[in-house]
Hints:
Elements: E1 2-8, E2 28-31, E3 34-37, E4 58-64, H1 70-83, E5 99-100, E6 121-122, E7 140-145, H2 148-151, H3 155-160, E8 164-168, H4 175-188, E9 193-199, H5 206-218, E10 224-229
Parallel strand pairs: 7-8, 7-9, 9-10
Antiparallel strand pairs: 1-4, 2-3, 5-6
Helix pairs in contact: 4-5
Protein name: 4Fe-4S ferredoxin iron-sulfur binding domain protein
Organism: Candidatus Methanoperedens nitratireducens
InterPro entries: 4Fe4S_Fe-S-bd, Corrinoid_activation_enz
Amino acid sequence: MKRNIVFIDKEKCNGCGSCIPNCAEGAIKIIDGKAKLIDDRFCDGLGACLGHCPQDAITIIERNAPEFNEEAVKKHLSSEVRKSAPPRMPRGCPGSMAMDFRKEVSTTGGTSPRQRSELRQWPIQLTLVSPEASYFKDAELLVAADCVPFAYPNFHSDFLAGKSLVIGCPKLDDVDFYTDKLTEFLKKNNIKGITLVNMEVPCCFGLQRIVEDAIRRSGKVLPIKQTVITIRGEKQ
Length: 236
């Protein structure tokens, strides 16, 4: 039958992954560095993903395609949930859309370098970030515990400048999921090195084990520069 369905222009697509969290049916995946409609049956043709592609690579066209199959979508989403088990923000949340700030000049926070935001991308939480995002390719990666930026006042200038960031809490979040996700990051991107910043409390060193396990599983050899922050906000 002929119906409306998503079309992704491979020439325009840069694989940033911004479209993925905006497809409630999970019909789009990054494959070989490009967004792809993985099954016509998963696309309802309503275009919720439209407008979320910074390259304008996604449009709605009319062509012959199988009918949208809600039962197939449910089975697909159930399978995806089992693969990525931890609680996450609902699919389609605009707050999880990948954004690249590297070409922007920050003017926030006044003129002092210590007041300027050094954040290069969004999102930053390890559960939400996409391993396919362009800002992780050939990057220096900063892995930080959730509490560090609150405890250490010069986090942006001393640690974040020039790096792509992921954050997490090894006590409250799913350690196995984090290890798998970080392993995927390392396999898919030419990460140059890892800066690890965690708090001095014992549970926070779980982040060190996550990073070390992910490097080992990825089969790569990467330098780790670790800094421990005290609960009084000082470098240990």
